[in-house]
Amino acid sequence: MDNGRVDEGDDRETAHRGRDETTEERADRRWTELLQELRVAQTGVQILFGFLLAVVFQPRFGTLSDADRTIYVVTVLLGSATAAALIGPVCFHRLLTGRHLKPETVVWASRLTLLGLVLLFCTMCSALLLIMRVALHNTLALWLVGGMALWSFVCWFVFPVWAMARSANGGDSSRQGK
Predict the structure, then answer these.
(1) Which pLDDT tens digit goes with each residue over 92-146?
(2) Which of 18, 32, 103, 151 allows an S-S link to 27, with CB 3.0 to 4.6 Å?
């Protein structure tokens, strides 16, 4: 008989953490965690996107080179796509609420959030490139943006993947000795 509990054999994350949750309880917890993450990301996107929208109305915008205008347009489009991806989970949830699809909603909202974070990475790199080109007028801008892009990529993607791999290989020192 199905009691709604997640079977440890069916879900490694649950077994690893030792949680005793129903599928719905797990979906509720994961949704709450996702909302907290979205709040942080959306705030940054709103500030960056607001800045980008205001740039075109500045007097100096008319003096930008064609290349810088192209970078600006690409950056605004990336910012818009980022906002859409990070707001998407809210719409997903609103449209599916009450239809008993919470676990599926969490999965799709998580995917949209990850896509939004990748787009945010691209938006930040593009915005930084535009700012550095205008501020420095030389190739140093590309090196600085490349360095910051690499650092952001490592912080956002490499460290988490490294932590997952280390945990999967039994190298997580927090679990050793227990």
Answers:
(1) 888 888 888 888 889 999 999 999 999 999 999 999 999 999 999 889 999 999 9
(2) 103
In whole angstroms, what is the distance from residue 109 CA to residue 105 CA? 6
The tens digit of pLDDT for each residue in 10-19 reads 554 544 556 7
| Residues 129, 132, 137, 138, CA torsion sign | negative
Yes or no: say if 26 and 110 are a contact pair by the CB < 8 Å rule.
Answer: no
Query: Which amino acid is residue 65, in one-letter code?
Result: S
- Rounded distance between C-alpha atoms, residue 97 and residue 106, angstroms: 11
The residue written with tokens 């129903």 in the block is: 22
Q: What is the C-alpha separation between 147 and 142, in angstroms, rounded?
A: 8
